[in-house]
Amino acid sequence: SSPAQDLSLPSVWLPGFGHTSTGMAELSEPTKPQCSYWIWLSENRADLTKEAGPGSVALVAKLGGQKWKAMSDVAKKPFEAKAAVAKQEYEKKMADFLAAGGVKGKRKAEKAAKKTGGESKKAKKDARAASGQPKRPPSGYWLFCTDKRQSFEKEAGSKSGPVIAKMAGAKWKAMSDAQKKPYEDQAKKAKAEYTKAMAEWKASGGGAGGEAEEEDGEEEEEE
Question: What is d(CA 82, CA 69) in angstroms, rounded to the nearest whole number?
């Protein structure tokens, strides 16, 4: 019988990435190296923090800047040498990265695009508010969370959103239908008012051309 065929992808070596299977390389753009000042600051941060006092990043940065400025060229030389080596290594890694098909600045561009997306979401929300579009009503669960939030914070000893949401979800699930009813009745009333207001808003020309959109993230989901 013929030997079993090896169907695995061949291992190849890519500069800066070592051995990896063909077509499976994950390119990671090299991080820019630190300058001599930042290398010095990193190595002396503990002493600077002790001198400036804990809890103040601004004071540490200010003190660091003053001390670096007062240092002689001889004192700065070791850190400048480290920075020069780091820069050479970065340039070599970047050359390997580009040769392997990487795109310089892609990661930065993706972060910027993500930030812009968040701003666009806020712009849409502001536009909806300016248009007079009625705000979506809260659910019974959301009304319950709002009503009990202070007591939850006191019980949890925290104001952390995830902590409060987890506690609220557990308590809501444990409640009987009779206990939930007051909140659900309020929600039904609010929804009826919303439906009426939305109809009137559309009748007056609001949302013409399909512009009306549901609001995002107004309510917390039940857990």
Answer: 18
Contact 134/194 with Cβ under 8 angstroms?
Answer: yes
Selection from 205, 201, 221 nearest residue 135 by Cα: 201
| Residue pair 107/26 in contact by the 8 Å Cβ criterion | no
- Three-state SS for 21? strand
- Rounded to whole angstroms, what are the CA distances from 96 to 52, 88, 92, 100? 42, 12, 6, 6
Distance CA(196)–CA(210), nearest Å, equals 18
Q: How far apart are CA 200 and CA 87, in angstroms?
A: 64
Please compute the mean of the pLDDT values over residues 38-52 and round it to a whole number: 88
CA dihedral of 136, 142, 148, 150, whole degrees rounded to 10: -70
Does the pLDDT value for residue 181 go beyond 90?
Answer: yes
More confident residue, 127 or 88: 88
Output the CA angle 124-147-130, nearest 5 degrees: 20
- pTM over cut 0.85: no
Averaged pLDDT of the chain:
79
In this structure, what is the dihedral angle of CA atoms 166, 169, 173, 179, given to the nearest 10 degrees? 130
Beta strand pairing call for 11-14 and 18-21: antiparallel
CA 25 to CA 27: how far, in whole Å? 6
For a pLDDT cut of 90, what percent of the chain falls above it?
31
